[in-house]
Amino acid sequence: MINYLYQEKNWQSQLNDLISDPEELLALLKLTTHDLKSEQLLSQHAHQQFKLRVPRQFVAKMQVGNAYDPLFLQVFPHHLEMQDMEKQIQAGFSADPLGELEANTLPGMLHKYKSRILMTITGACAIHCRYCFRRHFPYQENLPKSRDWFAIEHYIRDHPEINEIILSGGDPLTVSNDKLAQWINRFEQLPQIKTLRIHSRVPVVIPQRIDDDLLRILATTRLKVILVVHSNHANELDIDFDVAMRKLCNINVTLFNQSVLLSEINDNFYILKALSYRLFDARVLPYYLHVLDKVQGASHFLITDATAQTIYQALLKELPGYLVPKLVRETSGELHKTPLNVF
Ligand SMILES: *Cc1c(COP(=O)(O)O)cnc(C)c1O
């Protein structure tokens, strides 16, 4: 643990002080080109396409000198991303694997599943995960402005089956508390909306984001609030995360986690079992275990369905039911996430 990387800063200053220079990251981890295999070397091309971005606090959880650290491998832009692009495309890796551009009903809004809409209220994230299925997503054209709310509100009223609004992104918790409060206030005006769900990785990478103002906003809304955090490995979770989750739990926010199955990072029964127990220590229940979305640049993270199913079977045998996430795939055009069969 390298604590000197960051002081106890508030979350805005942490967000303004992210590491975005790959050389700086390598230096902090005392990794030289000597420690990296050739395919692991920095790819400027990959970095230009989807910039390195990682909070110092997350880097502090990486093991110095370990080129195979599971947190490091999630954020470092290296050569495998750009390798065999023809082959990646042939194997079905695309720029928009979920067909989101088509499902984009209104600016900043996706309505794929009957009772819930997803809103991308910001394009910004606190961390750039190399496997991100939105790494090529044209956010700038697709953020709801205040004036777009009129149309979205209209759409929701025309679809009485919608009862839940999911804030996604980008990462919705990179947005200021004032902005969030403004959005929540709009949702509350619609009697049909019962639940607000926030999907965010920020509580994992900058737990101080769960500050008093945010807690006040979430404690006073009439909506039921669900937070789905995103963690792939128990090494990502620390005492600051526990404290943040305890505060949310105390104001009755329902806490879930989703993970992505990633080759070399968590494609292993022991790691996933440890993650489930670690999440439960923090009062978070595992919700989804996603197989990789086939996005260009992420093909080296892919594991076969057969391997995924084998790992999953072991989880079923070892864990209590409430600590087994649902193993799913997101398929464009389907009306729900698709469970992978495990016999
Ligand atoms: C995953 C997803 C949801 C939420 O699905 P749940 O099964 O309710 O977790 C909603 N909308 C979109 C577009 C999604 O991708």
Automatic annotation (TrEMBL):
It comes from the Bacteria. GO terms for molecular function: 4 iron, 4 sulfur cluster binding; isomerase activity; metal ion binding. [4Fe-4S] cluster binds at residues 125, 129, 132. Signal peptide: none annotated. Its cofactor is [4Fe-4S] cluster; pyridoxal 5'-phosphate. The modification N6-(pyridoxal phosphate)lysine is found at residue 337. It catalyses: L-lysine = D-beta-lysine. Keywords: 4Fe-4S, Iron, Iron-sulfur, Isomerase, Metal-binding, Pyridoxal phosphate, S-adenosyl-L-methionine. Coiled coil: none annotated. Residues 111-323 form the Radical SAM core domain. PANTHER family: L-LYSINE 2,3-AMINOMUTASE (PTHR30538:SF1), LYSINE 2,3-AMINOMUTASE-RELATED (PTHR30538). Belongs to the radical SAM superfamily. KamA family. This is L-lysine 2,3-aminomutase. It comes from Acinetobacter marinus.
